[in-house]
Specification:
heterodimer; A: alpha+beta; 3 helices; 6 strands; 37% strand; B: alpha+beta; Thiol Ester Dehydrase, Chain A; 33% strand; elongated
């Protein structure tokens, strides 16, 4: 119990945010315009919270072994993920701990995501059913 | 700006049908860097028991976020979208969404509270097939930041 799973690292660049905006339909300019982002008090362009959650979802399905294993998935967006306009962008590191195996055989994962050492999610967890 | 708390507990009529497309799922999967075959290849999806490509877990928000404009764009609610940040997000899945699903969204406001000058609006969206079979329930908490922030 409380097994710690291998951390997963994802690189995020401005190009990723543009692609995600198009695919998701979330064109809020704080995700592509430094002018607008700083104008509302943000450090600069930030990743969509749902993009970060999608990366965490990739980690979850990788650990669980299949894309259709997720039964519940929840996060709180604790801090923004600033994405500088560089080729390197930034990195999001996702970790997970097995908290529980339910009577039904489902596995509850406690999840964290950090960017530059800051926790960007809190109260993040997933309930997965291994295939 | 205060929100109209009488919106709490209200449920809206189902949205128009959204037809989940195979290429939309592939586009979304590419955008998040998800290469699993079940997101891209119908044969791989059929091999695990689905009729067509499977959507990644967060894909439904692409549908529910648009559907929730029914609530957030109502001027009577009083939401200032320029001050809104995403607080919490939760999904409870009955099954994965798959290409070919024709779904409708039923929005409800679960909660409106104010704390420390901020307003917290929780929208619950039940995503069902046209026949009424549940697919996924999506909760989005939006935070309207206070003026002094």
């Amino acid at each position: 119990m409380n097994e710690i799973l291998e951390p997963q690292t994802f690189r995020v660049t401005r190009a990723d945010l543009v692609r995600y905006a198009g695919a998701s339909g979330d064109f809020n300019p704080i995700h592509w315009s430094d002018r607008v982002a700083t104008g509302v008090g943000l450090p600069g362009v930030i990743a969509h919270g749902m993009f970060t959650m999608a990366l965490v979802g990739r980690a979850v399905t990788a650990w669980a072994g299949a894309p259709d294993t997720v039964r519940e998935f929840s996060v709180r967006f604790a801090r923004p993920v600033p994405v500088p306009d560089t080729d390197e962008g930034t990195e999001v590191v996702v970790t997970a701990t097995v908290k529980e195996v339910t009577e039904d055989g489902d596995t509850r994962l406690a999840l964290t995501a950090t960017c530059n050492g800051d926790k960007v999610l809190s109260l993040a967890q997933a309930l997965v059913r291994k295939r | 700006m205060p929100l109209d708390q009488t919106f709490a507990g209200r449920t809206w009529p189902p949205t128009e049908t959204y037809l989940v497309g195979r290429e939309k799922i592939r586009e979304f999967a590419r955008a998040i860097g998800a290469t699993d075959a079940e997101y891209h290849d119908p044969e791989a999806a059929r091999a695990i028991g689905y009729p067509d490509v499977v959507a990644p877990p967060t894909f439904p928000v692409a549908i529910t976020m648009a559907a929730s404009r029914q609530v957030v764009n109502d001027p009577a609610l009083g939401l200032d979208y320029s001050r809104v940040v995403h607080g919490d997000q939760r999904f409870a899945y009955t099954r994965p969404m798959v290409a070919g699903d024709a779904v409708v969204c039923v929005n409800s406001v679960d909660e409106i509270i104010t704390r420390g000058g901020h307003w917290f609006l929780t929208i619950r969206t039940e995503v069902r097939t046209e026949a009424g079979d549940p697919v996924v329930t999506v909760w989005s908490k939006l935070v309207q930041r206070g003026e002094e922030h």
